[in-house]
Every structure is written in structure tokens, then in C-alpha cells.
Amino acid sequence: MANFNVSSFTELQTALASSDTDIHITITADFSITSQIQIPAGKSVSITSDSTKHRLSRGVTDENNKIKKTLADGGMLW
């Protein structure tokens, strides 16, 4: 499993795209989701906050006011 610490949406996108294995992402700062999140096929992704409990805010939402994300076949988001 690849581990990433991210403090911006750009870093989140880079982490999601840069590993061929399952991913654990630790959020280290508050930031906004400004476009759709892409989870590649076959990847399992877990996202947690560091001990400060940071917030991800919605910049882009779907018709149900949920953060937009796309899971390719076999992709998982935890």
C-alpha cells in the first residue's frame, strides 16, 4: 500500500494518479474539492485526517449535493 500526506486538492489528485497499488491518504490541511475525483480501476483508496481533523469542503457536487467522484470498475473509496 502506498501512503501519501496531502494538503491540497492538487496533491490529492497527484496521489490518486501516482500509485499502481492501493492507497492510504492522510489529509494534513483543510482544502476544497474543486473538481471531480477520479479513482482508477482496481485501486482501493482510504482517506483519513491527521490528528488535527482537517476538513474537505465541496467545491463541486452532484444533484444530491454530494462530492462528485468516479470509481472505475474495481475501484474502491473508503
Characterise the protein shown here.
With 78 residues, this protein is mainly beta. The chain has one domain (2-77). It is 12% helix and 38% strand. The protein is built from 1 helix and 8 strands, in the order βαβββββββ. The protein has one helix at 9-17; strands at residues 2-6, 23-27, 31-33, 37-39, 44-49, 56-58, 69-71, 76-77. The chain has a 4-stranded parallel beta sheet, covered by helices on one side. Strands 3-6 form a two-stranded parallel sheet. Helix 1 (9-17) links the parallel strand 1 and strand 2 (23-27). The model has no long low-confidence stretch (mean pLDDT 78).
Backbone shape: globular
Order of secondary-structure elements: EHEEEEEEE
Q: Oligomeric form of this entry?
A: single chain
Contiguous low-pLDDT stretches (5 residues minimum) are none
Number of domains: 1
What is the structural class? mainly beta
What helical percentage do the residues reach? 10-25%
Any idea what the radius of gyration is? 12 Å
How much is the average pLDDT?
Answer: 78
Number of strands: 8
Biggest sheet: strands, sense, closure? 4 strands, parallel
End-to-end Cα distance, whole Å, is 14 Å
Structure annotation, total helices: 1
Strand order of the largest sheet: 1-2-5-8
Beta fraction:
35-45%
